Amino acid sequence: MNAWLWAGVLLLAAWAAHWGANQLLTPLKLLRKQWGLTASAGAAFLAIVTASPEVAINITSAARGVSDIGLGNLLGSNIISIPLMITIAYFASRKRFKNNPQHQEHLDAKVLALNKRSVSVLSLPYLGIIALVAILTIPKAWRGLQPVDGWIMLGAYAAFLARAIIKGREKGEKVEWTQKEIWLSIAGAFAIAAGAFFIVKATENIVSVLSISKIVGGLFITGIMTTAPEVFKTWSVVKGGEVTAGTTSVIADNAITMTVAFFPLALVNTPVQDFQLYWVNLAFVGLMPLLYSLFVHQSKELHGFSKWQVFVFDAAYLTYLLVMAFFVLELI
């Protein structure tokens, strides 16, 4: 099979994995209502499912002996996701919401409205997770992903989730479950597993045909493909009036990717073979939530992002591409 055919397989597999994740969302949304979780805390909880394709991909890449694809996926998806989702959310929120009359103020001010609590509940703890990854994997004596690192990062996610739930708890509601929802959830789990297998398999073959490294394939093929379907979810959720939930869920997704999806790669002792490529990418992984936290913290009466701040996120990603092309990969 040539690269184009494998690209088709990659698209279908990514769609299947995210279809599966969507089927698992319903039972978790019911649990969120039952437990009385707020939008920010609920985002951290629902990310268990929305980030499941990335976790499954890294399990598959570790099992198949191509953990560099998983490492590239881990870094690449966490760099592109925040600027991409914030840009999509900004344009999706440029309409009036009947259930939110105060939103007109944000429209007039050209601001993407956000709950300021999302910084303390999600983005600052996520920055702490990234700092912990740097401490565990960058120093020369500890360089690489090792089993002990994986267990530490699992503990970090448990603390992240517990903190989000404790800080965002309200009175719960009574919910009902249907057999259809249960069966769709089971089908979703199988779709995620199958999609992850073929995403990794397709990436392996594409990088082989194009003669590029597996980690670069993970960064710019797998990482982008696993993030792209989230565009539709973000657009749909924000269009429905849930601006904070639609925009902040990406932070929670990334926290899972850097912890739970980190775990299978650490178990198989994934080395850092190109240190410059690794630290540059990890630096940009940290830059995105840092900008997020600073911009929301600086906002005054109307919390969120102005149009120019949205463009700064996009410029940061463009800068990343230029740094990778000119200084890391030396393509030009």
From TrEMBL:
It comes from the Bacteria. Residues 7-164, 182-324 form the Sodium/calcium exchanger membrane region domain. One of its GO terms (cellular component) is membrane. The chain crosses the membrane at residues 74-92, 119-138, 182-200, 206-231, 243-265, 277-296, 308-329. InterPro entries: NaCa_Exmemb (IPR004837), NCX_ion-bd_dom_sf (IPR044880). It is found in: Membrane. It is a multi-pass membrane protein. Keywords: Membrane, Transmembrane, Transmembrane helix. GO terms for biological process: transmembrane transport. This is Sodium:calcium exchanger. It comes from Flavilitoribacter nigricans (strain ATCC 23147 / DSM 23189 / NBRC 102662 / NCIMB 1420 / SS-2) (Lewinella nigricans).
